[in-house]
Amino acid sequence: NLTQKLEEVFKSLKGKGKISEDDLKQALRQVRLALIEADVNLGVVKDFINRIKEKAIGEEVYGSLNPVQTVIKIVKDELTELLGGVQSGITISSKPPTVIMLVGLQGAGKTTTAGKLAVYLRKKGKHPMLVAADVYRPAAIKQLQVVGKQIDIPVFANETPGANPVDIARDAIAASTSMLKDVVIIDTAGRLAIDETLMTELVNIKQSVRPHEILLVVDAMIGQDAVQTAQTFNERLGIDGVVMTKLDGDAKGGAALSIKSVTGRPIKFMGTSEKMDGLEEFRPEGMASRILDLGDLGALIDRTKELVNEEEAKELAIKMQRNEFTLDDFLKQMNQVRKMGKFQDLIGLIPGMGKIKDQLKDIDLDSKEIRRIEAIIQSMTSKEKANPKILNGSRRKRIAMGSGTRVQDVNRLIKQFEEAQKMMKKMGSMRKGKKGMLPKL
Length: 441
Ligand code: GDP
Ligand code: MG
What we know:
Oligomer: single chain
Radius of gyration: 25 Å
Subcellular location: Cytoplasm
Distance between the termini: 24 Å
Bound molecules: guanosine-5'-diphosphate, magnesium ion
Strand order of the largest sheet: 3-2-4-1-5-6-7-8
Family: Belongs to the GTP-binding SRP family. SRP54 subfamily.
Organism: Veillonella criceti
Number of domains: 3
Binding site for GTP: 104-111, 187-191, 245-248
CATH superfamily of the largest domain: P-loop containing nucleotide triphosphate hydrolases
Structural class: alpha/beta
Helix content: 55-70%
Strand content: 5-15%
CATH architecture of the largest domain: 3-Layer(aba) Sandwich
Number of strands: 8
Order of helices and strands: HHHHEHEHEHEHEHEHEEHHHHHHHHHH
CATH class of the largest domain: Alpha Beta
């Protein structure tokens, strides 16, 4: 983790007011390694490091930020700016239908993203339809139809052998008015590698239907190769933006930075699961944290916010800072987490928690488990809830009996709670320390 590595570098610096050139050189070496590890293109890394160097030399170690935090702040701000500064969604045409064309290599996630985009736009009050313009594999049409059925969105297709994708796209747009659809999402064919036939076909579709948005779908897992792909698609076709998929996997997403630097086109969306709700608007700051392995507290807070009201969130933040997190809060949180999605996904968003994420893979938060935990917690006194350490063997036994569970269950819960408490303490002190770096609740 970059924070730890920088801490190592700056160990000797304590007390000095400024970052010297030598300290900086060593720190930037770590930044460079982090970027390369995250699959950022070498040329892009070099440019980036040079820009940081200019900004950081002689930088005051300001306010309450220590040198590590200062360097991280500079690096992260710069990275955020390079990744997009402001985020940009889909441009909706004033004259319907808005036509969106998805392009990309085979397996990148075009068909899945087509469905996700339809769901996303429907939530925004639009009426999308899908178009099957990948006609070479019969399974491809079928796949889009399955997606459409699953999300209840109409799919325009022509299953006649030899049907031409250009005609299909044009017919679909003509049909959109009578179908009362105002957004047409075209799912196109892909190949394993870029080839001339594919490019020509995509150019023909583009010229025929004049899409408002051509979105390139790239798989984050292909890492460095994404740059070449993006460059070629952009040169041949002209893309308006990028959807980066499979960011729920291990890919650090450094390709996002390379793509943005090389093509100048914004990353607009991120695919974060195979499911139809797994599409998020791209957040440059979150991606910068991810690339630098800083965790993504912003995303966690966003997701928490969806379910916790502002008051509760503030209350929790205060508790975190004062270290007053109790088992009641723990239970509340578990219930929220269960509503929000998989626990380990959320944990992964917390800075420095990447490792713990793997260890937590087995925690299965089904409602039965939650009810069991609830029963255990309700059998405790409020003193015990605030500090379960005081529970001795006989109390644990009593609680297990009272809640219809086993002593092992009680012990396990207490251990999990202590982990959570440690985590809260860490987050609480970070919120105090890194002023200006972390989003406010
Ligand atoms: P296409 O060939 O470009 O149309 O790609 P598909 O939409 O068929 O996707 C290829 C595979 O990637 C499928 O198994 C999808 O479920 C999977 N996939 C697509 N997007 C994501 C994502 O964001 N996360 C994950 N985990 N899998 C994805
Ligand atoms: Mg497909």
